[in-house]
Amino acid sequence: MAWLYFSLAAASFESLRDVFSKVITNKGNQSLDEYLVAWALRAFTLIIYLPWLLLSPNPIPIIGKDFWWALLADATLSTIGGILYMRALRFGDISLTVPLMGFSPLFLVIASPFILNEFPSKVQCLGILLICFGAYFLNLKPKENNYLAPLTSLINTPSSRLMLVVAFLWALTTSFDKIGAKNSSPLFFSASLYFCTAIMTLPIVMVYSPNWLSKLKVNLAKLTLLGSLKALDMWCHVMAISSTVAANSVAVKQSGLLMSVGYGYFLFHEKNIKQRFFGCTIIVIGVCLLSVL
């Protein structure tokens, strides 16, 4: 049962990371922009992550021939996705945007016939329908009589649109994660990925984040805490998947989506929370069907 506790802990730390990211990017004149937060998340996570890697039995594994191109592709997509993710959190409701990450495994399953020549089972098709149905309820407003309004809102709301793009990008990175890990080790590839994304994001921060260095110094403690939450999330996730079938851990970790909806209501006083909680629950069930079966 240890894997269950680690999975729940990973979901909790991931949800807290999203909440804290939204808090520090929504404080009026003292708020941090999404570029600096996206960079700091990777840079500080890497600093905290390195001792874990160095103390592992095989810190520098044999590098396979497919490592470098997988790392480059993964880092490029992760850099873009990381900035868009923080922007969606900054300007959108957390109870509306974060559950849309449930589309990531959906996009992966849809792409499988074209990339891996693998076709979804009947149960996975049901999971796809549930995710789409849940997204409909996320945007449902009971007072509106227009039944197509939730679908148009999903497309027309900038933060929701950004999060769907992130879900698609991170679905693509899943394949590169596997290739990179097989051609090195999971710990080494993760550290390499954080290093590359931090390097790629830094020039963007220097151009689009005014006075970024002074902001970094003033908010050093906050950004360190943000990186710590991400590192704890990763550590608990790795501990969970090392103790059970990876699909079981992934399914349980989806409870973090429900936590984010709860935080949206209690901390940010977001509206239409009943519909969003119901929609998020349906999405979680759909994701579990895609992950477990």
Compact description:
This is DMT family transporter. The chain is mainly α and 293 residues long. The chain has helices at 2-24, 34-54, 67-91, 94-97, 103-115, 122-138, 149-156, 158-182, 186-208, 212-218, 220-241, 246-253, 255-266, 273-292.
Description:
InterPro entries: EamA_dom (IPR000620), EmrE-like (IPR037185). This is DMT family transporter. It holds the Pfam family EamA. Belongs to the EamA transporter family. 78% of the residues lie in helices and 0% in strands. The chain has 14 helices and no strands. The chain has helices at 2-24, 34-54, 67-91, 94-97, 103-115, 122-138, 149-156, 158-182, 186-208, 212-218, 220-241, 246-253, 255-266, 273-292. Helix 2 (34-54) packs across helix 11 (220-241), helix 3 packs across helix 9 (186-208) and helix 8 (158-182) packs antiparallel against helix 9. The longest helix has 25 residues, at 67-91.
